[in-house]
Predict the 3D structure of the following.
Amino acid sequence: MREKILFFDFDGTLTTKDTLLEFILYSCGSIRFLLGFLLYSPLLILMKFGLYPNWKAKQHVFSHFFGGMKIEEFNVLCRKFAVDCRYLLRPEAVKEMETAMTEGIKVYVVSASIDNWVQPFFEFAKVLGTQIEVIDGILTGRFITPNCYGIEKVRRIKQVLTEPRSHYYIVAYGDSRGDKEMLDYADETHFRPFRH
């Protein structure tokens, strides 16, 4: 019998909203949030039309709000965000994850969001997210891994599989274009689950 392993997308699948926007709003307040997005709106519009890389636009926005911040300060914000914003999680999704964990099934969260704020939501699951560069304890605003989106999700999944692919029965949960490759790679897929 093959080993069952579960991979969940985070934003929109496990949560009701995109957490990048929610995290910026939570950390910086609505005025700074609006001014920052106004500044980068031309890039974000180009990104929406596929004329500017998703990861590049995201890195510009992330750098604008958090570049230069101490990593300790950032991580405290991330932990507080996870505590104060648990309402963003879909209860049925969390239940599904917890049930799998009690049955001894490995559970991963595969997200384009920064793993620093995704991980505190899930003490019991391993997060494969976009990772940020830190030099001398300070955030540079750059990413040190490719944005964990599309084919990158499959690449990151392959990195954690210690046995040949045929050893596993992979179940994947997603809700958007960024999850297509992960869903294609899985044996069993759930598109936009936990929505009624």
